[in-house]
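SEQUENCE-TO-STRUCTURE ENTRY
===========================
What this section holds: a protein sequence and its matching fold, both as plain text.
Question of interest: how does this chain fold, as expressed in C-alpha coordinates?
***
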Amino acid sequence: QVQLVESGGGLVQAGGSLRLSCAASGRSFSNYAMGWFRQAPGKERDFVARINWSGGTTDYADSVKGRFTISRDNAKNTVYLQMNSLKPEDTAVYYCAAGSRYTAIAGRYDYWGQGTQVTVSS
Protein backbone atom coordinates (compact mmCIF):
# COMPACT_ATOMS: atom_id res chain seq x y z
CA GLN A 1 0.00 0.00 0.00
CA VAL A 2 1.24 3.49 -0.91
CA GLN A 3 -0.20 6.80 0.22
CA LEU A 4 0.48 9.85 -1.93
CA VAL A 5 0.16 13.50 -0.92
CA GLU A 6 0.65 16.31 -3.45
CA SER A 7 1.66 19.85 -2.58
CA GLY A 8 2.95 22.99 -4.25
CA GLY A 9 -0.05 24.05 -6.26
CA GLY A 10 -1.34 27.59 -6.32
CA LEU A 11 -2.11 30.66 -8.38
CA VAL A 12 0.55 31.94 -10.76
CA GLN A 13 0.65 34.36 -13.67
CA ALA A 14 1.24 33.15 -17.19
CA GLY A 15 4.94 32.67 -17.80
CA GLY A 16 5.59 31.82 -14.18
CA SER A 17 6.77 28.63 -12.53
CA LEU A 18 5.60 26.18 -9.89
CA ARG A 19 7.12 23.05 -8.43
CA LEU A 20 4.78 20.29 -7.39
CA SER A 21 5.82 17.64 -4.93
CA CYS A 22 4.30 14.24 -4.25
CA ALA A 23 5.35 12.60 -1.00
CA ALA A 24 4.84 8.87 -0.71
CA SER A 25 4.48 6.82 2.41
CA GLY A 26 4.31 3.10 2.65
CA ARG A 27 6.54 0.42 1.34
CA SER A 28 8.94 0.20 -1.56
CA PHE A 29 8.49 3.61 -3.18
CA SER A 30 11.53 2.97 -5.35
CA ASN A 31 9.82 -0.05 -6.88
CA TYR A 32 7.10 2.08 -8.44
CA ALA A 33 6.89 4.04 -11.62
CA MET A 34 5.34 7.44 -11.00
CA GLY A 35 3.14 9.63 -13.11
CA TRP A 36 1.62 13.08 -13.08
CA PHE A 37 -1.82 13.65 -14.54
CA ARG A 38 -4.12 16.65 -14.65
CA GLN A 39 -7.83 17.23 -14.92
CA ALA A 40 -9.48 20.48 -15.91
CA PRO A 41 -13.17 21.13 -15.13
CA GLY A 42 -15.42 19.14 -17.41
CA LYS A 43 -12.53 17.28 -19.00
CA GLU A 44 -10.95 13.88 -18.66
CA ARG A 45 -7.84 13.19 -16.62
CA ASP A 46 -4.88 13.62 -18.96
CA PHE A 47 -1.36 12.31 -18.84
CA VAL A 48 1.32 14.93 -18.12
CA ALA A 49 4.58 13.11 -17.33
CA ARG A 50 5.95 9.79 -16.12
CA ILE A 51 9.19 8.51 -14.64
CA ASN A 52 10.46 5.00 -14.16
CA TRP A 53 11.54 3.51 -10.84
CA SER A 54 15.14 4.70 -11.04
CA GLY A 55 14.48 8.11 -12.55
CA GLY A 56 16.51 7.23 -15.59
CA THR A 57 13.62 7.27 -18.03
CA THR A 58 11.03 9.98 -18.43
CA ASP A 59 8.29 10.88 -20.85
CA TYR A 60 6.03 13.88 -21.38
CA ALA A 61 2.82 14.87 -23.05
CA ASP A 62 3.47 16.96 -26.15
CA SER A 63 1.65 19.90 -24.57
CA VAL A 64 4.21 20.19 -21.75
CA LYS A 65 7.37 18.96 -23.42
CA GLY A 66 10.21 21.44 -22.97
CA ARG A 67 8.39 23.27 -20.17
CA PHE A 68 7.83 20.63 -17.47
CA THR A 69 10.38 18.33 -15.84
CA ILE A 70 9.60 15.26 -13.75
CA SER A 71 12.15 13.95 -11.28
CA ARG A 72 12.27 11.77 -8.19
CA ASP A 73 14.31 11.36 -5.05
CA ASN A 74 13.96 7.79 -3.82
CA ALA A 75 15.79 8.59 -0.61
CA LYS A 76 13.05 11.10 0.21
CA ASN A 77 10.18 9.05 -1.26
CA THR A 78 9.21 12.06 -3.33
CA VAL A 79 8.50 12.81 -6.96
CA TYR A 80 8.53 16.33 -8.36
CA LEU A 81 7.06 18.20 -11.28
CA GLN A 82 8.86 21.42 -12.16
CA MET A 83 6.57 23.53 -14.31
CA ASN A 84 8.00 26.51 -16.18
CA SER A 85 6.54 28.92 -18.73
CA LEU A 86 3.07 28.18 -17.45
CA LYS A 87 0.08 28.93 -19.64
CA PRO A 88 -3.59 29.48 -18.75
CA GLU A 89 -4.38 26.14 -20.42
CA ASP A 90 -2.24 24.42 -17.78
CA THR A 91 -4.90 25.25 -15.21
CA ALA A 92 -6.14 22.00 -13.68
CA VAL A 93 -6.03 19.77 -10.65
CA TYR A 94 -2.76 17.87 -10.77
CA TYR A 95 -2.53 14.32 -9.47
CA CYS A 96 0.41 12.05 -8.87
CA ALA A 97 0.09 8.31 -9.24
CA ALA A 98 2.15 5.23 -8.49
CA GLY A 99 2.10 1.92 -10.28
CA SER A 100 4.06 -1.16 -11.17
CA ARG A 101 4.07 -0.23 -14.87
CA TYR A 102 5.85 2.63 -16.58
CA THR A 103 2.83 3.85 -18.51
CA ALA A 104 0.97 6.96 -19.65
CA ILE A 105 -2.41 5.28 -19.11
CA ALA A 106 -4.14 6.48 -15.98
CA GLY A 107 -6.11 3.29 -15.49
CA ARG A 108 -2.93 1.27 -15.06
CA TYR A 109 -1.78 3.14 -11.98
CA ASP A 110 -2.58 1.58 -8.63
CA TYR A 111 -2.39 4.51 -6.22
CA TRP A 112 -3.42 8.16 -6.48
CA GLY A 113 -3.03 11.31 -4.46
CA GLN A 114 -5.85 13.70 -3.66
CA GLY A 115 -4.68 16.33 -6.15
CA THR A 116 -3.43 19.90 -5.95
CA GLN A 117 -4.96 22.85 -7.79
CA VAL A 118 -2.85 24.83 -10.25
CA THR A 119 -4.35 28.02 -11.62
CA VAL A 120 -2.56 30.10 -14.24
CA SER A 121 -3.91 33.58 -14.83
CA SER A 122 -3.51 35.42 -18.12
Summary: The mean pLDDT is 96. The first strand starts at residue 2 and ends at 7. The two ends are 40 Å apart (CA to CA). The chain has no helices and eleven strands.
